[in-house]
From TrEMBL:
It comes from Bradyrhizobium jicamae. This is Exopolysaccharide biosynthesis protein. The chain crosses the membrane at residues 40-66, 144-161, 166-187. It comes from the Bacteria. Keywords: Membrane, Transmembrane, Transmembrane helix.
Length: 199
């Protein structure tokens, strides 16, 4: 079993955050105020989950770009421009979704443990770059195109929080497959359109 962090497991942190949430809508500024010192990792996890949920996926995908860029730049904590941070969304959907995904998170936590030797700043920049590309790919106007990138972001966030180099390697491989799959889909779609137009 993976050793427990003094700050609690990822699933416990999410449960505590959900318990603090008000009954009405919340905004990203509220999320940032309620995150602990692992704010980048936990924020990526929360936004990755939100990217999967219909109805809030669009704002979550946009929001995901900002912490990704800040990680690439080596910033110490996430921040959003006001027009993003004050955008409200229905947190009730997230609460219902966490009930569904918590068993999966707990299963990953049971087999995950700290096992990397890389420098934190190197990992931050790498994670930021990959998450940025995944968020960009999730924004394409194709049916269900947001689901797989969202799932991969969740895996990356858990690996980052757990400092699990093996899980991070698996998640990065999944990210590469996801990005290549989207690239092939876009190329095939563009090729089909050009043939239809006789170009």
């Amino acid at each position: 079993m993976a050793p427990k962090s003094s700050l609690g497991s990822t699933s416990q942190l999410i449960e505590e955050l959900v318990a603090k949430a008000p009954d009405g809508p919340v905004d990203l500024e509220w999320l940032l105020r309620n995150l602990d010192r692992r704010s980048f990792g936990l924020l990526l996890l929360l936004l990755g989950l939100l990217v999967i949920i219909p109805g809030v996926a669009t704002i979550a995908t946009l929001a995901l770009l900002f912490p990704a860029v800040e990680m690439m730049l080596g910033r110490s904590a996430p921040a959003f421009p006001r027009f993003v941070s004050k955008r409200q969304f229905d947190f009730k959907r997230f609460k219902r979704f966490t009930v569904f995904v918590r068993p999966m998170l707990e299963a990953i936590e049971r087999i995950s443990r700290p096992r990397w030797d890389a420098r934190r700043d190197v990992i931050d920049r790498l994670v930021g770059l990959v998450v940025f590309l995944l968020a960009f790919s999730a924004g394409w106007p194709l049916p269900l195109v947001n689901v797989i990138p969202g799932i991969v972001v969740v895996l990356i966030a858990i690996a980052y929080l757990q400092e699990d180099g093996l899980l991070l390697t698996v998640a990065m491989a999944a990210a590469l497959i996801s990005l290549l799959g989207l690239g092939w889909t876009l190329w095939a779609s563009a090729d089909a359109v050009m043939k239809w137009m006789g170009l």
